Amino acid sequence: MKPKATIRDYYKSDENVISDEDDEMSQNETTNQYIPLVQEKGRLRTKQYHTMDVQPLTPAAITAEAILKNLGSRLEQRKKLILRRRWLVDVEFVMAVIGILLMMIENELFYLDPREKMSTISLVLKTFTSITTGVLLIAICLYYQTGMEIRMLDGGVDDPFAVTPFWTYVAWIVEVLVCAVHPFPGNIEVVFVSPRGHSRVASIDGILSVLMMFRLYLVGKFIVVHSRLLTDPSTQSIGALSRIKINLFFVFKSAMSESPGILIVSVMLTMYTVSCWSMRTCEMYYTRTEESQGFSQSMWLSAITFLTVGYGDVTPQTHCGRYIAIMTGLCGLASTALLVAVIAKRLEQTRSERYVFNFLSRIHLENKHKNAAADVVKCSLRLWVMNKQGGKPTLTYTYFRWKLRNAVREMRSARATLAENEESTVGVIELSHMISRMTVSIEKSLVAQDRMSEQMTKIEKELQDMRSHLK
């Protein structure tokens, strides 16, 4: 019994000997052939072969295989870039929160002891705040670089300027400038003038601390990248096909549709808390206000400004406080508008409630129309009898004429209202249901016609057979 020939024996035969030196020289000549049963990336490609012979690879197969490999590598690289961008957003969020917490601790120590600005604790806290700010700026730059790489990969180009719009660079610069603001190590003092004209030398850390709260926009970016609308691959595919950007506004609208009450309450509480803290920081830094009094006054002033009441009993004593009051009023107007929109949407009738209301209204209008028509008939008969009797018009005759006119007017009004009610009940959903029912009925009629035509064809064939037999 002969042993089975192996691939090694196949290459060692006299007719198919290829040396190692000739392999490199003949590589260009053998590119159109490949060896079967060779493992490639953990998979045995044996489904294409029926024999152990070397089979030529056609140019179409080479092109399709290359396209599939290129597409798979691009998708894998895009997934890695998206995961890296999400990780960078996490780093931005953590660094921003740590920097804000360190800044708030340093400010609270200053409220307890104004001489704390020159202490070692203040220097250490501000140094760590600067370090977190530097890491935050690096993460922001890497985030935009990753976005450019994703655009380059999607567009299939190597030039980042070809796929990156101008406003992306503007947003990059603005974001870097906003996040770079923080209290620097040391104590930088300048002269501040109050609205009443009093000048005073004070530290600029108060203004820098208030401006540092603009980093809270990173909370929205963090929520977006971790939202199920962005992490779900199907959502990304649908958004890419429909050319809809899954960004902060899209996630905000989706949250407003799902749970508007919780979202609006969270936004209002966040705005109010930031406003209270900012107002307290401005008033405590640049006025000689006690801590307890400054906290209570800041809460009261922020509340009446946020609710657009403005009693006028408490006013900001600094320019910084006035700017904070203006921003608080604008945020209050925006949140009030959102609240009114949500309440109005909640007060609307549902589809089933609207159907029940329209049905009851239609019944009421039909009864009203019938009663008015009956009154018209009764008054007409009474007036006809009185006209037959003759005589001068009396008060009864005038009363029935007045009642007849009112009945006719009421009948016409009920008829017009009933027509308007019927028109208002037909909406887009009802129209779509009507069209779908018509489509189904048309399809059924077409099927019935096809069956009838088949039956007629069979009858014609049978008649022809009968004629042929009779002949």
Automatic annotation (TrEMBL):
The keyword GTP-binding does not apply. InterPro entries: K_chnl_Ca-activ_SK (IPR015449), K_chnl_dom (IPR013099). GO terms for molecular function: small conductance calcium-activated potassium channel activity. Residues 268-348 form the Potassium channel domain. The chain crosses the membrane at residues 87-105, 125-145, 204-225, 262-282, 294-311, 323-344. GO terms for cellular component: membrane. Pfam families: Ion_trans_2, SK_channel. It comes from the Eukaryota. Keywords: Membrane, Transmembrane, Transmembrane helix. PANTHER family: SMALL CONDUCTANCE CALCIUM-ACTIVATED POTASSIUM CHANNEL. This is Potassium channel domain-containing protein. It comes from Patella caerulea.
